[in-house]
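Below is a typical protein record.
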Amino acid sequence: MRAPDATGRFGRFGGRYLPEALVPAARAVEAAFREAWADAAFTTEYRRLLATYVGRPTPVTECARLSEVLGVRVLLKREDLAHTGSHKINNVLGQALLAKRMGKRKLIAETGAGQHGVASATAAALLGLSCTVYMGRTDARRQELNVFRMELLGAEVVTVASAAGTGTLKEATNAALRAWVGETEDAHYCLGSALGPHPYPWMVREFQRVIGDEARAQCAERLPAAVPDVVVACVGGGSNAAGTFAGFVDTPAALVGVEAAGGSAVDKGVPGVLHGFRSHFLQDEDSQVLEAHSISAGLDYPGVGPEHVHLAETGRVRYTGVTDHQAMRALELLTRTEGILPALESAHALAWVVDAAATGELPAGSTVLVTLSGRGDKDVQQIREYFR
């Protein structure tokens, strides 16, 4: 996948739509990232931490029993085995190193499912930075254990609530951006997904492309065709999918991004601007942004990263949505056939595979790689409530 153009756009989407007070800060992040990403000393330290702290490369697991049930060969890229339990740590470590290089002393972050918040608190502790994490009231309640983990790591967790909102990621992002306005001299905004103003969608994808690069090399070692027939990843903002697709976009593999049916911004959204970037957002006839719904806190954002909309428009990636019920059915199937409890986000990607195999959309014998973006330990309370 290519870098955005000079204005930070992927095709018609992306860009930088910010209050005047934040434009210099965003430009400084872009300049620092361009310089750091070309600096061997920075990338060497980043890769050292990925290997010695995160535990990379994460493995690819062959799912023999699940494959037998579905009639297709299923491989999982195991980001759930990365330190802190998800792919989020790849991006956060890169941004935390960048913050140190810029002379910042604090990370500001937002989180929905809590995984990005835990990763941010972890990186801040490792590198001696302070950290404030903004989290919607509803998300904080359904991810109570992750709130405690962030606080244990030394982060301040600010719960965000508004009378008109639903207490989810959209409100947390609003609050984090407002906080950054007043702290640009001392703080770096550590955005957690492949969205937001330029350079964040591009920068986050580059920090996450380690997923796709590793998976492609691992597939080349074990598959006769070197690449799987289909590569699948869940999409909320789209960071794990962007990183995964980056490794396969120039191969014959079909690429599928799976959104929550109640938050399918690629398919159901229309062009608009929110949180500093142009993309597809769920909106009413008056262009008011609608709330998304998903059982997964990480997938109920009303928009999607701009590069994903561009990839959909060019036809390189197909995007689709699955329901809460489909995701929970897939979660149960993977857990009982392979002993792997996926995050609710990842269960959406698996659900598409389960249904596509059943309908014949995936021909028998196909090889499918699914990125398991995180582990389901954080979701156990919700899973128990769902099945009771």
User: Anything to note?
Assistant: The longest strand covers residues 130-136. The mean pLDDT is 95.
